[in-house]
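Sanity check record (used in CI):
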Amino acid sequence: RSCSFTGFSTVQSRKLGKSLGRSSVRSRMSLKSPKAYNSLQKGAVIWDPKPLQVKKIFEALKKGLNEYLEAHQAELDYLSGRHKDTKRNSRLAFYYDLDKQIRSVERYIRKLEFHISKVEELYEAYCIQCRLRDGATNMKHAFSLSPSTKASRESLVELYKNFQECTEDMCFIEGALEVHLGEFHVKMKGLVGFARLCPGDQYEVFVRLGRQKWRLKGKIETDDSQTWDEEEKIFIPNLHEKFEIKVTELRGLATILVGVVTCDSINFFTTKPQAIIVDITELGTIKLQLEVLW
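Expected output for RIPR3 protein:
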């Protein structure tokens, strides 16, 4: 199969280059400055797109958005039914109140539909750039197997340029997609440890998602209840980063590491609050319970 590419002419490769250039995302989309995106901030630029991860997040995001859309559509149907009954009964004040609720839900549904269409548009553009990038990679490999001539060297330079442009466009789209991921509201529910947790024990929990950090301290009270200095934190989802959770026990001036775990956020894109119980120790003798609302 690679032999068939070996004789690919310079003219044809230049045509591909023009095609790739015309397909550039930034020439067709008004994307914001990369500073606006978590994954593209200065000092954090990694020109290494991850199509499989982006696909998983896109599918989870679209499913979650559709769940919200279905829930609000059901609410709209319910309110519309009550609206008709109220109109027949001539209770004007209640009727107008319902009318306001219906208009509010309709506006929210339109926003959700636009949100979904924007996410689909971004992912479609991402897939196009991914295919073009793969094509440029295959052609680079084919040209590298052919005898080195001036024409083939020019073609390789052009293909490398096209490959870089597609890579850059994919990273910009990843940044644009992150803007549409919403927020995770993470609530601390406490540690579960049965006999491992004793009154007076103090713990520190450190939660990290990319550059976002949450450090909180808690104490086991005499009645086995727990008090924490913070209860909730908002995290902005990230395409590539997982939640990293670290728990340490505080003993005077010393700290003892209890355990470190990672948690994928792909299952959090849903309408219902997600209760998460993660094993902090290998044997599961201490667990951490969190609640995540998207």
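Strands lie at 184-192, 202-209, 212-220, 226-228, 232-235, 243-251, 254-263, 274-279, 287-293. If this sentence no longer matches the regenerated tokens, the check is flagged for review.
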